[in-house]
Design brief:
Blueprint: H1 5-24, H2 39-51, E1 58-59, E2 64-65, H3 72-81, H4 91-94, H5 99-113, H6 116-119, H7 125-134, H8 145-158
Antiparallel strand pairs: 1-2
Helix pairs in contact: 1-5, 2-8, 3-5, 5-7, 7-8
Length: 159
């Protein structure tokens, strides 16, 4: 599918806005529960658990798309958090298959929901992974514990 000039311009502007938001939010924190591992390592581990890095992966009966297996509702939430409109067409949903854009969306989502104020303490990698998997309150859900174990295993293998 060929992108129109307008789609390309809008995508470029939104990319710049999201990258700026990520930098302003201090995404590149080195805080971790495991020494020598960074937030970037966590994102890599989540990506591996979700899709083994396949930007074209589709799961959950077609609802989860891309390297991070993002649902449309996840993208909608990121757009709301970043105060960006959806724009015309479905291009924000196509970002799920773009490794850079999907990673930025995961960063925005995690940094929005994994805060000391929300969690009641300094958020850990476990909190962050479980929020990615189970939504804003995923860090509390029993159903996300097995997911965290998978992510932790990948982190331990890479440390």
């Amino acid at each position: 599918m060929k992108k129109s000039r307008t789609d390309i311009i809008i995508s470029g502007i939104i990319t710049i806005m999201l990258v700026t938001l990520v930098v302003v939010m201090g995404i590149h924190s080195n805080k971790s529960i495991l020494p020598a591992l960074t937030f970037e390592d966590l994102l890599d581990a989540i990506e591996w658990v979700e899709s083994k890095g396949d930007a074209n992966a589709v799961g959950d009966d077609g609802r989860a798309v891309g390297a991070y297996q993002l649902w449309k509702i996840y993208v909608d939430d990121v757009l709301r958090i970043a105060k960006l409109g959806g724009g015309e067409g479905d291009h924000p949903y196509r970002w799920r298959q773009n490794k850079i854009m999907s990673r930025i969306m995961v960063m925005v989502y995690i940094r929005h929901y994994a805060t000391e104020k929300r969690v009641g303490r300094e958020p850990t990698f476990e909190d962050m992974a479980r929020i990615h998997n189970g939504g804003p309150n995923g860090y509390k859900k029993q159903s996300t514990k097995k997911y965290w174990e998978k992510v932790k295993k990948v982190l331990n293998e890479r440390s």
